Amino acid sequence: KHDVQYDCCPARYLDITYHFVLLRLPLYFIVNVIIPCLLFSFVIAV
After folding, report:
1. What is the pLDDT of residue 15?
2. What's CA 15's distance to the chain center, in Å?
3. For residue 42, what is the enclosing H or E element?
4. Could you tell me the residue ranges of all domains in the chain?
5. How far apart are CA 38 and CA 42, in angstroms?
6. Which segments cross the bilayer (predicted)?
């Protein structure tokens, strides 16, 4: 939480900064995206 003074305005404003950490689960991605795509591609090609 910060008080910020902008050049354009005389008043001070409250600035709140959030930090998010997003993690990807590689096994979930492989099982739910890669394998179905490969299976569909194989079925369509045959």
Report:
1. 86
2. 22
3. helix 35-45
4. 2-45
5. 6
6. 25-45
Its sign, for the CA torsion 19, 25, 28, 32, is: positive
Inter-residue contact 3 to 14 (CB < 8 Å) = yes
Quote the pTM value. 0.44
Task: Check pLDDT > 80 for residue 1.
Answer: no
pLDDT number for residue 21: 95
Report pLDDT digits (tens) over 9-35. 889 999 899 999 998 888 888 889 899
In a 13 Å sphere around the CA of 10, the CA atoms on its Cβ side amount to 0
Q: Hey, what amino acid is at 24?
A: R
Phi, psi of 42 (to 5 degrees): -65, -45
